[in-house]
């Protein structure tokens, strides 16, 4: 059963509220995100890719999936507490990314030109 970002956010907010988790300090939530990202990163640390020589077992997929959820859990709490609607900003940002990374272009060249133009510092 698929859930929207808004639905997932509400589930996470309700989960935290039911447990009386009041620590909504943005710095603490960001630190939790960093820690969970590091735990996720450990699963990928020495892998070159996921070719036929480096497959992921079902148990490891489960562990990795749980780490992704931990990251999302704190990230969505932070966005909610910051009154950031991720779905809204996703819809606003995607056209900018489509403009920045046009299909069929040399992405390395496009990225360098984008950086040199200074547009990486603002969103028009």
- Write down the overall mean pLDDT: 87
- Assembly annotation: single chain
User: What would the principal axes of the Cα set say about the shape?
Assistant: globular
Number of domains: 2
* Total number of beta strands: 0
Give the fraction of residues assigned to helices.
55-70%
Q: List the helices and strands in order.
A: HHHHH
Output the CATH topology of the largest domain. Answer: Helix Hairpins
Strand content: under 5%
- Distance, first to last CA: 37 Å
Structure explained in plain terms:
The protein has 2 domains: 1-84, Orthogonal Bundle (Helix Hairpins); 87-124. The chain starts with a helix and ends in a 7-residue tail after the last helix. The longest helix has 24 residues, at 58-81. Helix 1 crosses helix 3 and helix 2 (26-44) runs antiparallel to helix 3 (58-81). The chain has 124 residues and is mainly α. It is built from 5 helices and no strands. Helix content is 67%, strand content 0%. The model has no long low-confidence stretch (mean pLDDT 87).
């Amino acid at each position: 059963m698929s859930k929207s970002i808004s639905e997932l956010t509400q589930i996470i907010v309700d989960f935290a509220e039911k447990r009386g988790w009041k620590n909504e300090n943005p710095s603490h939530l960001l630190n939790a995100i960093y820690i969970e990202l590091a735990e996720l990163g450990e699963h990928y640390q020495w892998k070159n890719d996921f070719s036929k020589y480096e497959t992921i077992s079902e148990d490891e997929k489960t562990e990795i999936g749980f780490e992704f959820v931990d990251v999302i859990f704190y990230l969505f709490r932070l966005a909610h507490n910051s009154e950031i609607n991720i779905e809204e900003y996703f819809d606003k940002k995607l056209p900018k990314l489509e403009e920045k990374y046009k299909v069929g272009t040399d992405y390395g060249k496009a990225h360098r030109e984008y950086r040199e133009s200074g547009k990486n510092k603002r969103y028009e």
